Structures are given as C-alpha cells and as structure tokens.
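Can't attach files on this board, so I'm pasting raw text. These are the components:
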Amino acid sequence: MYVKLIAHTPEPDRVVAAAAKLCYSASSAVEIFDGLTTENCAKFLQILQKSGHMSPFEHANFTFAIDGISRVTSHQLVRHRMASFSQQSQRYVGMEENECILPPSLDKIEGAKVIFTKQIESAKEAYNKLVALGIPKEDARFVLPHGGLTRIVVTMNARELHHFFSLRICHRAQWEIQSLATAMLKEVKKVAPLLFSKAGPSCISKGKCEEARPCGKPIGPDEL
Amino acid sequence: MYVKLIAHTPEPDRVVAAAAKLCYSASSAVEIFDGLTTENCAKFLQILQKSGHMSPFEHANFTFAIDGISRVTSHQLVRHRMASFSQQSQRYVGMEENECILPPSLDKIEGAKVIFTKQIESAKEAYNKLVALGIPKEDARFVLPHGGLTRIVVTMNARELHHFFSLRICHRAQWEIQSLATAMLKEVKKVAPLLFSKAGPSCISKGKCEEARPCGKPIGPDEL
Amino acid sequence: MYVKLIAHTPEPDRVVAAAAKLCYSASSAVEIFDGLTTENCAKFLQILQKSGHMSPFEHANFTFAIDGISRVTSHQLVRHRMASFSQQSQRYVGMEENECILPPSLDKIEGAKVIFTKQIESAKEAYNKLVALGIPKEDARFVLPHGGLTRIVVTMNARELHHFFSLRICHRAQWEIQSLATAMLKEVKKVAPLLFSKAGPSCISKGKCEEARPCGKPIGPDEL
Amino acid sequence: MYVKLIAHTPEPDRVVAAAAKLCYSASSAVEIFDGLTTENCAKFLQILQKSGHMSPFEHANFTFAIDGISRVTSHQLVRHRMASFSQQSQRYVGMEENECILPPSLDKIEGAKVIFTKQIESAKEAYNKLVALGIPKEDARFVLPHGGLTRIVVTMNARELHHFFSLRICHRAQWEIQSLATAMLKEVKKVAPLLFSKAGPSCISKGKCEEARPCGKPIGPDEL
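---
Top answer:
Structure tokens for the assembled complex are below.
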C-alpha cells in the first residue's frame, strides 16, 4: 500500500479558522485571515470541535494518490459519498500483471497461504487466456479476485476525513481499510496538525469508546 | 438479474408537479396538489424537462430490490453518490454457494466458457477450503471473483434516476449495468409514466446522440 | 405556520428494516420484506440506532408542505444539503399581500411590537409603490423584511431528518425553526413511529445533553 | 461586491489531468503527475470536457471570500448543495451599520430610488430601536431588508463551479448573482486557465444557447 498526499488547500488550519470566525465577526474574511496567529487558530479550532460546529472544516481539502489497495477496500472507500474519486478502470487497463493483497490471517493457519496464492495465480492465468482468446478486458475481469490491486485518487475535505477516520481507524473496521485510513491520517497531520489533532475513532476523539460492541483495545493518545 | 421496485413516493407525477408549481404560484402546496389534473400534470412536467428545471424531480423517490448482479456492476452502481444503498456484506454473510455472472461474450468464442467456469468453480472451492480451515469470511472473500453475485437495495430520486438512465442505458455503458438500468426504467415507468417519459440516453431524451464517440445504433423511441 | 406531510415512502419502518437486514442475510430483499413482523422491525431498528448504523434510514423519504414560515427560517432550512427543496419564488410571485412573522419576544417588551409592525407595514407599502412604478418584482423585494412569509416543499430521508431534529429541536436552536422541526417530527411520528421513536436533540436521543453550552432545560421523554 | 480567491488546490489543472489520466493508465498517480507537461494537460482536459467526463474536475477546490452581496443573492448561492459555506450570522453579529444593495433598475425610474433608500433607512432605524429596547438581535433582524449585505466564505470544486457558472452567468439569471458568478470566474481563470477555458452558460461552453427561452444576447467568446 502506498498513500501520498499529492495536493491540499494551502494553510488548511488557518483557512478553516478564518471561515469559522467569519460567522461570529463583523470583520471581513480577508481581515480575519490576515489577523489570525497560530495560537488563535489552535484555540478557535478546539472550540469548534468541542461544540461540534464542524461545517467550517469543509473548506480544507486533501487529495491523495493511493496505490496497491485491494478492490475489497476500494469498494468500501467509494461508499463515502462526500468525496471525489478517480479509479483505475478495468474496462480500459489490462490486468495481465495484477497482483493481489495477502490477508495477514493466512500466516496464522497452516496451509491457507498455499491455497490462496495458487487460486490467485490461476485467476491471473485464466484472465490472460481469456484476453488472448479475444474476450474483452471488461468481461475477462469477471474472473479476477476481489483481493486484486487497484489505484485511486481521492479528495476529501477535513470534515469528511474526520468522519472517515472515526469509522475506519476503529479496530472494528476491516483491517485493510484501517491501515489505509491510518496512513491517510498520518499524511494530513503533517500539513494540518491542528485540524486533525483529535481525529480518529471515539476512543481518540472523545476519550472513550462509543461503539455498541467495543473491541476492548482502545487506541492510546500517542498511537496515531 | 432480478429488479423489483419495492417502494416509492405515492403519486410521484403529481407530487413533483405540485412542488414545481409552488415556485411560481401564490397558492399553498396543498391547494396546488389537490387542484392538479392529469392533463395539467403532464403539461407541466414537460415544461420542466424542456427547460432543464429538474430540481422538483427530487421529491419523488424510488426504492429497488436488486438481486443477482455481479460485484462488477454493484461497484459501478454505488459510484452514484446521490443515492442510498444497503448491500449484502461479504464480511458477515457466507459466500459458500455464491454464483457468478457469465458475460455473453463467452458464447461467441470457442473455449472461453470452459476456462471461465472452471476458474469460477475453483474460486468457490478455494473460498470454502479457506473458511473450513478457519480463515475469516472477510479474508477468504479476497479470492472470490468480481463476477460473483450480490444483492443490494437502492433508493434514488427521479432527478438522479434521469441522470443514471442517461449514462447507463447508453450503448457505450458496460453491458450488465445497461441491463440493470433498463430494468429499473421499466419498473418506474409503470408508476410514474409522466416523470420518465423522456428518460434515457441523449438519443432518447434529446432525440440525438451527444456522446463524444457515438455507438452508431441510437435507441428508438419505442424501444424502452 | 402550517406543516403537512404530503407524501412519504409507504411502510417506512419496514422498508428501512428490510434494507438493513439484507446486509447481514443470505435471503433476498423481497423475502426479508415479506417475512418482517412489527416486533422484528422494532427490535431491529433499535439495534441499528444503538450501533449508529444509520445508512438504511435513508431508504425512507418524507415530503412536507410548509406554509407561513419566515425567510429567516427557510434560509436556515435550506442549509441542510441532504434534502430537496422547492420554494416560492420572489422573482415570479408578487409579494403585495405578504405577511410577516412576529417574534414572541415582542410581547415581552413594552413598545417593541409597535415599532416592529409599523416597520413591516411600511416595507409592504414601499414594495407596492416600487412595483407600481415599474420596478421588477425581483428588485422591489430587496426592501421586504426577512420576517416575511414563504412557502416551501421539502423532502428529507429519515437519516437526514434524525440529524435535522437533533440540531433544530434543541433549545439552543433559533425559536422558529425549533417550532418547525417539532411540527415535522410530530408528522413523521404518525406514519413511522419506530423510525423516529428516539429522534430529537441529545437530551432525547442519548438521554443526556451533549451540547458544549447546555440550555439547562432538557426535553423530557414525553414532551415530543 | 468584493470577491477574492483566498485558497485553492495548488496546480489545479495538473491535479485534475493526473487524476483523470489514472483511470486509463497502468502507471501510478504520482508517475502520471510528474510526467504531465502543460501541453499534455491542455489536450487531456479538452478531451474530458468534450466527452462530458467531468468527475476528475472535482479534485480541484477553490475557496472564495465574498463581501458585500445581498441576502437575496446569498440565499440563491447556498442552494448549490455541492459546496461548503460559512456565512456571517445575524443571530450573533449586530447589524446596526448594515448597508443595502441598490438594484440598478432604481436608476431607470424616476422616484424609485427615494422610496427605496428611505425604506432601507427606516428598517435600520427600527432594528436599532428594537435592539436598544432589549429585543434579541436574532429577532430584531426580522425587520431587516433582503437587500442587506452579508459576508460568506464559499468552497466549490471545479466541477460544481462549471455547473454554477453555466446557470448563474447566463443572462436569464438574477443580475446580482450574474455579477458574483462572473467575478468568481475571473478569479479562478487566473489560477486554472485550462480548467475553466470553456466555463460559462451554454452560449460559451457549447457555442449555442440551450435555454428554453433564450435571452437573445449570447455572450461572446472574449467577453468573460
């Protein structure tokens, strides 16, 4: 899995703080923006998060290039509708060399990995044979496994990212999207440390688990 | 493939016409609703579509139960973000008996179907062996083919359906989602004939193809 | 203020429960729908709400005719983006007889109501004079007061309604939209008692206030 | 009216082109991004627009500070739901000095401006009196005119901006939002000339009017 933040709103912490401050101020957005210090920003963003006034977080956008996740995971990812996606097409791009994600559970049970990899290999062979016979790529892909790799460009704003992190970093989420979401959070924390200081599942954001069926292993404040 | 309209806004044609009429009228919505004849409705809905004033179409909603489409197609379907989806989970539901869609192109090339069905069979066996060994369902599914069947409940409003039909009934769309969209259009035409009288790709809705690369076989007015 | 539910998904409780059950079941949506008893429904919807799995609530849609709210309130209402609106146009509909909402606070302070009503009356006169002179309606309306009445048709699904009720029935919301939201909740409870049994601000839905600055007067379980 | 682009996705033309190219390529997003020349970009973005494949345009976001528009216009603006807004609150910010937009039509009819400005002045006085008496700001504003000024921060992506420009720069749109949309287009053209080269109403984007009732004065290619 490869996750890189390829573009984002410049100075995301300040853009959000300025937009939010506009709601309660007689000054113009530009005056507010120019007058904001880092300390003011931090304080103001904390108040917004505490009071659940998250709409100003929408003004900061983040674009990720994601490589080497399975289609199992991209299918979950694109269910987040407040986001923009451009995904590699299996109608137009040949999958002759397509690799597959190996779930970690395969290493824990004797014999599982052999069955899995043999099956994956045979799917690739069948795909290649079908394409060689003249079956269109868009039909040959019907035999490809869900675990096969895909590439996708994703843009989400900071509000939706908070929502995404709250659901998908949680230990109850599927393991691969947990890794993806954690890698995305690491990327955005580098450029917007204030916006995402409290981002994560409820064990992080609220300090206590709000899941109906807790995992019993809450994430510590320094783990993310 | 099985497509059934399981619920919808009652009297969808009239609800949309009444909402639209409200924008231009000094009367209340309820008065307008009660005063609308079928002729008025038809005339008014035509004007709306001709002038591109489609927002009132959002007030009519349609819920479909869809069975027996491939995950190739459900993946395209859920990319329509102005819609609501509940899809059968492969984390929680066992796929021991999961069948697969056979693309029609397999019948046109000697030898293709044997390769395809053998591969599908072997994927099912591998899945069952992995689950029997103790691999979680959510990991065993990584070997399942994209062509495997899924079930999904979908709700879209009439505006989004118009958009969906314009893209997905077009001959340039992938063949399986073409069938799905055509089946959905048949269902909604039964209960909202006025709302969907002109629905379809541009060869239907505009009377001429607007695709950058036309298919050369426009759909006739009586085909849908 | 006049609020009437003019259309909704039939059997909303069952549609949502069936869609949700599909995610975890090997049966088809139609089988599930037909097999659901009221008891099963109630139990299942409770689990969904407790676990925060609210997406199936999107399959039930509700359309309201709303008359006699101020533009102050319609402006807040249309900020809910997961909804569909058709509002009476001030470009096309004459406002010669437009009435105005009188805030209750006017009754508590001597002299306030006179100032208010005189001002409202003078705005109507100015509007009428401008229109009589030939100023287009769309320009004459610039003098009309924010408190002036409007009409709007609104469609929201049950998930968005839950969100709307949680924010807008809260005592910290503006008083007119509080009344509107409360009236809308009363309407939907008649046809979907299970879906909305726990709807409202956090004092109702969670049993305790989650506002940063509580009002100190939580709403009792039987008040809504 | 004051419109300033305060933040945007850096290199918006290239981000969109790279995301779009990913769909049809076996290379990674980062490789594609680094390999794109300005010529390639221009060519590729033209193909996208011609074929109506607009979803990659969503990856480029633009944040505007807007000052000095009327509430008439902000009400139209916030109806665009694929966008993010932070607007100055009339519940929390005092409107003692609030100015009002004067529609140009007032200059064309003798006597109109006097009626208008007198009315606006009297609204301000009534507001100030009510606030002085102790009426809450959120209630006193009910007498304020729709033409009164507001401030708003808006974020839209390039796809929604194309949609917004197509509707709102058109001569059939209300005049104030026409000016606003035109000013916004000027701002984004400075930083994303390729993305917006064809943006505007159908007279610009398609080279011919597609309105049901054309204005008769199509905008020339060099006017925007």
